[in-house]
Amino acid sequence: MKAVKAGTPVSLVIPGLAKLLDMRLLAAGKKRVRGRMRWSRRIVQRDGIIHGGALAALADSTGGVGAMISAGPGRRVVTAEMKINYFGNIHSGFVDADARLLHRGRASSVWEIRLYSGGKGRRMLALAVVSYVTASGES
Fold first, then answer.
1. CA 72 to CA 126: how far, in whole Å?
2. How wide is the angle at C-alpha 52 spanned by C-alphas 13 and 5, nearest 5°?
3. How crowded is residue 8: how many other Cβ atoms within 10 Å of its Cβ?
4. CA 123, CA 115: separation in Å to the nearest integer?
5. Residue 40's pLDDT band (cuts 50, 70, 90)
6. C-beta separation of 99 from 112 below 8 A
């Protein structure tokens, strides 16, 4: 995978859900990826906070980009397991994701992704740990 520029839509790297949720990459490398998703009425629960599934998708997609970069060209990466704890949410603004490589093996990687409220008063919203399996072949 080639270098990813800040502001690149995640959908250019991982098509589908990332486009629907309008996720953006802020930085991407083999050991760390940062992303962002804006609050929008399309992704909220009845009370106006972002749906937990959208937060989980941001965590998985951000970690997935890192897993793909880390795996290298010609390798296929899929999510094997995901655990997420929620601590808070937002009614407006955006959510920042900070994914860091915890372990890289021959056929797998494990990433920790922290989700934060963006802007002033930054606070942690969720913490996810995601395992990815790597195999030969394009994804």
1. 28
2. 25
3. 18
4. 9
5. very high
6. yes
Query: Is the distance from CB of 58 to CB of 96 less than 8 angstroms?
Result: no
* Listed residue (90, 10, 92, 6) closest to 57, CA to CA: 10
pLDDT in tens, 114-133: 999 987 889 999 999 999 99
Nearest CA to 21 out of 34, 7, 8, 40 is that of 40
Distance between first and last Cα of the chain: 12
One-letter amino acid for residue 82 of the chain: M
Q: So what's the pLDDT on residue 114?
A: 98
Domains and CATH numbers, the chain: 10-136 (3.10.129.10)
**Spatial distance between the Cα atoms of 31 and 136, rounded to a whole number of angstroms:** 20
CA dist., res. 124 & res. 26, Å (int): 18
Q: Is residue 51 a contact partner of residue 20, using CB atoms and an 8 Å limit?
A: no
